[in-house]
Amino acid sequence: MKRDALKSLTNAHAWVGLIISTILFIIFFAGSLSLFREDIISWERDPYFVSSEELETFSIDAVISQVAKDYKVNTHGYFILQMPTAELPSTNIYFEEKIVAEANLPDDLEDHLDEHVEDHIDKHLIISPDGKILGDGNAFEWGNFLYQLHYNLHIPEVGLYFVGVVTLFFFVALLSGVVIHWRKIISKFFQYRKDGKKDKLLDAHNLIGVMGLPFHIMYAFSGLVFNLLIVYQISYAVALYGGDQAKLFKAAGVVDIHLEETNVAIPVQGLDKLLLTAKSSLGEVDIIRMSIDHFGDESASVTFRGDDKSQFSTRKEVTYHIASGRELYLTKNNYDNDIRGGLAVIASLHFGDFAGYSLRILFFVLGIGTCYIILTGNLMWLQKRANLRSEKQNKLGLQLVRAMTTGGFIGTIFATAVGFLCARLLPLELLGRSDVIGQIFFACLAASLIASLLIKAQQQFAAIFLKITALALAMIPVLDWLMLSQGIVVMFNAGHFDVLIVEVMLLSLALCCWLVSSRLFSSAEAVIDEQLINTDELTENSIGKASVIN
């Protein structure tokens, strides 16, 4: 009975892993790159806008004054400013710009021709330390594209929950894998049989899986919290608070500092002074973000938020009424609430942003290792099916799994490499530049899947495809230095090494792809030689039999 139960659990583990494999590979690969999202954004953008200005010249009031002069900021929308740092002296501002267009009215209503309808567009500006507008940040969204691919696959509305369901199945696969491997988890922890192909795949699958188990459990749990949080929220609101979400938010420590608009317009000024007050109130905190509510209205308030590096995952913030300087809200202890503090801890663990680059490099290696676990799982399933008698095989299903493995896995890496190339090669003035790069990414991924479905010699195709992918990845640093060497050198001199970090990451992936491709080529040649030997033996036997008959 125990043996039958273990066999059933093994089959369930294999099928669950197979069903979610391609989506899970995309999630983990994009997530591994997203650990360096800020570096990727800086790699794409900053060589064009590198500034030699000192950070001390930065003035929030000067920046706000310039933006208010050049743009009609929507009072009812958001306004967010990311504070500059010594490594990143440029500032990013996100806000809604108000667009006024004439209403489409009948011709007989001439007395209403002056009526207007309001609309807005999202703006993202890159600002130099001296307050000058350097460019449009919406053209440099490749890093954010990868991050969004990680958490919702760029599927509107339902993508977030779809990824949450996949993460739930990943959690089930993790638990079933632990149960299956539990009896041998100590005795065969370091076992790696390199001679047998099946044994080698199984040992690699188990070894990396066990070594990364805490990492996998943490990511599965935190991913569930983030992607399916709305499900928990609705359940708690209905079960505990009778459907009253306001009570739920209050219990969860969500503080809504809202002042009613007065419709009296006043200039937004005095923020430099309020920043000094905020630093004094919050203590030793690196203020990383400033947001304004009701921009340009007499009721406008500003919130300064920062991270306390002396404590683990502790975020503090303070809110002031801009016109009077009155303090509206202050927290010095991670929002003074266990729920919000707990979510902040989970977020820090998930993003790996609490221990510098060393931890992010470790998480990156473990993330790529997880991609390898997914790959070995699929390869073992394919090998097991290939060993079955031909009449028991579903050839179409087998071909589909091969195509999803080759085209889906390698295609994701190849499409990412093409995305990096486009992020460097496409002109900055191209309309909808970031959208075009995203469309090219999905076109490359779709083409890879179609090619994998049509090509029968999967192993040779995979080997060639990996070499092409490796070359594409290796070309990116070359283009960096051919096109933007001057800007990169200025960045290096300022202690800004994001370009180098991204290049090392891409070259490491290129090396991995090339080494795997070389092994696939050797394996494919061995298979071809074996087939030729078998063919020769069959021919000799046929000739021998013919001679005997004659």
Overview of the molecule:
Helices cover 62% and strands 11% of the residues. With 550 residues, it is α+β, with helices and mostly antiparallel strands. The protein contains 16 helices and eight strands. An eight-stranded antiparallel beta sheet has the order 4-3-2-1-5-6-7-8, with helices on both faces. It has two domains: 2-43 and 147-226 and 355-535, no CATH class; 54-107 and 115-129 and 254-336, no CATH class.
Mean pLDDT: 82
Q: How would a textbook summarize the main sheet?
A: 8 strands, antiparallel
Strand order of the largest sheet: 4-3-2-1-5-6-7-8
Helical proportion?
55-70%
Number of helices: 16
Question: What is the molecular shape?
Answer: globular
How many β-strand runs? 8
Q: Uncertain segments of ≥5 residues (pLDDT<50)?
A: 109-117, 524-540, 542-550
List keywords for this structure.
single chain; 550 residues; alpha+beta; 8-stranded antiparallel β-sheet; 16 helices; 8 strands; 62% helix; disordered C terminus
